[in-house]
Design goal:
Elements: H1 2-26, E1 30-34, E2 43-44, E3 59-64, E4 68-69, E5 100-101, E6 107-114, H2 117-123, E7 129-137, E8 148-152, E9 167-173, E10 190-197, E11 201-203, E12 222-229, E13 237-244, E14 259-263, E15 272-277, E16 282-289, H3 292-295, H4 302-318
Helix pairs in contact: 1-4
Length: 319
């Protein structure tokens, strides 16, 4: 009977927690979410199709070290920032499962995925704002901090980190480009844009200091949030990048951005997210929505208390 009681108690606590989390996110417009919640170790991302807001599975291209999920060891050795599933955590942000990474610096890889028309349309209306968030952990290898995330109308190519064809996009990257040549950064999350070009434009972050623990293969995990203000054609659209240190707070002011860029886009053609790396940085928990709260969800404060009450009720029942 002990086993049955424990199972029943766990089920009630889990259900209470789920209800509280659902209540927190029900009014928030989270349209795209990729938690990389996949099973297995060192599994190629190509063909995996979890998450919400996507029209089909992950695609990818490149050479040598593949983009994988479920990776807990890297070429540099021990001391990574990943959890036991190969994912990143940033409490109290809700997270689960693995993350996206590569084993080492050999070669270049990109991975991409198409959004549903419903999500794409809701995220890209003029005179509105969209938000995105992503957990990132830069490799400690100073020559390989170039990992890039992009929302736009083209995928990355894998012979230098530009776009496969002239295109548009906004995103965030560790890279610092110079006249079309990709250059590694210091681990700061920089603003990234492609302005009807195959070459990137980078707005370097200010006021951010990357941290690496002694002996670690990666820098400390950061929660990067982006805000895009969509304006009518003829007026520049705006990208703001924020370093969020405490999830659960109010939406940041645009004046608090650590990096920003502008560009006059027709974002109605943007339907693709793409990740590029020639190093072995880690990305996780990609979210896109129409509010800051939607892309930085945390459990309701009442969750733990409700779960505890559920447990107490079961204990009384046993007596």
């Amino acid at each position: 009977m002990k086993s049955n009681t424990f199972t029943h108690k766990f089920a009630i606590c889990a259900a209470v927690s789920g209800l509280a989390i659902a209540a927190h996110t029900a009014g928030a417009a989270l349209l795209v979410h990729e938690p990389f919640d996949y099973t297995g170790e060192n599994v190629s991302i190509v063909g995996l199709d979890g998450g919400v807001g996507f029209d089909g599975a992950w695609n990818g291209s490149g050479f040598n070290q593949a983009h994988t999920v479920g990776r807990t060891s890297f070429a540099s050795g021990a001391g990574t920032t990943v959890n036991s599933d190969g994912g990143l955590d940033f409490l109290p942000l809700i997270s689960s499962g693995s993350g996206l990474s590569r084993f080492g610096n050999a070669g270049q890889r990109e991975a991409n995925r198409i959004l549903t028309t419903t999500a794409q349309s809701a995220l890209t209306q003029d005179n509105t704002s969209m938000w995105f968030s992503i957990l990132m952990s830069a490799t400690d290898n100073g020559a390989a901090r170039v990992a890039s995330f992009l929302f736009g109308n083209q995928t990355f190519e894998t012979s230098g980190g530009g776009l496969a064809a002239e295109g548009q996009g906004f995103g965030v990257a560790f890279r610092t480009d110079d006249n079309g040549s990709i250059s590694p950064g210091d681990g700061s999350p920089n603003a990234l844009a492609f302005l009807d070009s195959q070459n990137a434009t980078v707005g370097e972050a200010t006021g951010f200091t990357p941290v690496t623990q002694p002996g670690a293969t990666h820098q400390d995990t950061i929660l990067v949030v982006g805000k895009i203000n969509w304006n009518p054609i003829g007026t520049d659209d705006e990208l703001f990048i924020f370093n969020i240190t405490q999830p659960g707070g109010p939406a940041p002011d645009e004046s608090d951005a650590i990096a920003s860029l502008t560009g006059d886009f027709d974002q109605s053609t943007w339907d693709t997210i793409s990740v590029y790396d020639s190093g072995f940085s880690i990305v996780d928990e990609i979210r896109m929505g129409t509010s800051f709260d939607a892309v930085t969800p945390i459990p309701e404060p009442s969750t733990a208390a409700l779960a505890a009450l559920a447990g107490l009720g079961l204990l009384r029942r046993r007596r």
